[in-house]
Every structure is written in C-alpha cells, then in structure tokens.
Amino acid sequence: MTFQTPDLCDENEGKVKVATPMFQAYGGKARFHGQIQTVKVFEDNVFVRDMLSEPGTGKVLVVDGGGSLRCALVGDLIAAMAQKNGWEGIIVYGCIRDSGVINGIDIGVRALNTNPLKSIKQGAGYKNVAVTFAGVTFEPGQFVYVDEDGIIVSETALL
User: What angle do CA 70, 72, 78 make, to 5 degrees?
Assistant: First the structure.
C-alpha cells in the first residue's frame, strides 16, 4: 500500500509524532512502515543482529545507537538478513556501512550517516524498551511510517 507521510499527518493531526529530520535514506525501499521493535545499544551491534535474525514481517527495527558516528551498527550482511527475514525497515540513530550494497537490498534504511568501521561485539544493550531520539519516543508495538519526507510515529495503525 502506498502512502505519503504529509497526508498521514494531515489526516491524523494531533495523533502522530514527527521525528526531527536528520536521517539519510539508504536501502532499496524509499517508503516503509510497520510495527516498532527496538534495541538500545552503544557502538555494539550484537542485539541488532539478534533482533534482525528473527522473523520480522510487518515490523521496523528502531535502533537507538546513542547518535554515535564512531562506528557502524548495520552493514550489508545484517541488512540482507533482515530483508530475508521479512523486516520492512531499520531506523538507526547512528551509522551504517556498506551503503552501496545496502542500496541494492529491498529494505528501507534510515541512518544518521555512514562509517566503514565495524562495531564492537560484547552483547551490551537492551531489547524492546522505549527509546527517545529525534524528538520522538519510539515504543515497541507502536507504528512507524517512513518516506522521502520524513518519519512519523503513531500509537495505532494508520493504514
């Protein structure tokens, strides 16, 4: 189903939250939406990989990486695994790498930027907790809608 975030905002005024525009678009899907799952990590992508290795049909993983630009939390192998497992998209408050390859994968990705350095692998972080960045709190179970104009969050499904 196609949608446009400006239309969703107009139709649901006062019911959606709009993320501060700070993300770059990657991946083969310009638009994606789904039910939110979250991880909160810092320069460690073990939980990101763990979540995306599970079935994710109709879901979007929101990764609070603390806004770190010092390493990447998602690369081409993780993005391909996410696509294979049915995830609609990934939003990373941090960096990705392998952006050229990720742009050819049929998944939506938003991130602050790119960095070729991989993350550490210690397994520190949290799964499915509320995370706040870009002026929005992303709660597991809520819904996120992403397109060329931005990112919006709703407590209920809009489509």
Answer: 170
CATH (domain of 88) = 3.50.30.40
Establish if 17 belongs to a structural domain. Answer: no
Distance CA 73, CA 58 (A): 22
Q: Which residues contact 41 (CB under 8 A, 6 or more apart)?
A: 47, 48, 63, 64, 65, 66, 73, 124, 125, 126
Tokens 């879901």 belong to: 59
Q: Which are the contacts of 30, defined by CB distance < 8 A and separation ≥ 6?
A: 108, 147, 148
Mean pLDDT of 65-94: 98
- The token pair at 39 is 């991880």
Q: What is the pLDDT of residues 2-43, one digit of tens each?
A: 899 999 999 999 999 999 999 999 999 999 999 999 999 999
Contacts of 100 (CB under 8 A, 6+ apart): none
